[in-house]
Amino acid sequence: MAKSPHVAGYYFSQMFSFHNVRDVGYTGLQPRSDSKGNSIVHAAFSSFQNGTTTTHPNCHNGADYGPGVSCAVDIIGNYDHTYNLVVQLVQDTTWRGALVDAVTGTSTVIGEWTLPKGSGKLNNANTGFVEYYPWNGKSKADIVCGTLPHSESTFYDPTSTTAGTGNGSVYGIFEYNDAGCKGKTGFSSTKVPGGYNIKVGF
Prior knowledge:
- The chain is mainly beta.
- Helix content is 0%, strand content 43%.
């Protein structure tokens, strides 16, 4: 997210899901305002599945005003770096989210939560998205499409270290907009080695 504003508003996220349960998880990055001259990177790791529990200090019950668990951490980071978001099975149905700086190798735990008994492993496909959440809940009449702040992010192909699984790919990029601004936000996607660069805003 090298060319994204250093202010809260955007969410660069990847959804994921599990066998035997209905609802999804999210993990992603959000810009934040600089603090004491340092760039701040906010990372999130959430489950929207009812019955998810946690005891991790970075987490709390509830996800977007519904059931589930939300975990988050702020780090002093570098927006020019690539960050890998890791979803890792700890044991049984407990999962850990981690943020790994691909340049320095530094790993930071975002949080951990436990899905209901009987839930399975990760499914092999889901959706990523770029969200400008200050527009959430606003009427279309109150949104001026041309005021969307410029952001630029790169989504790379997912990888796995689990034996017997392969790596994935990012594909099917499209503009989805329920604020009445489709075609009016400067959206573009460009194939880059190992992923896609997404631009939106002005």
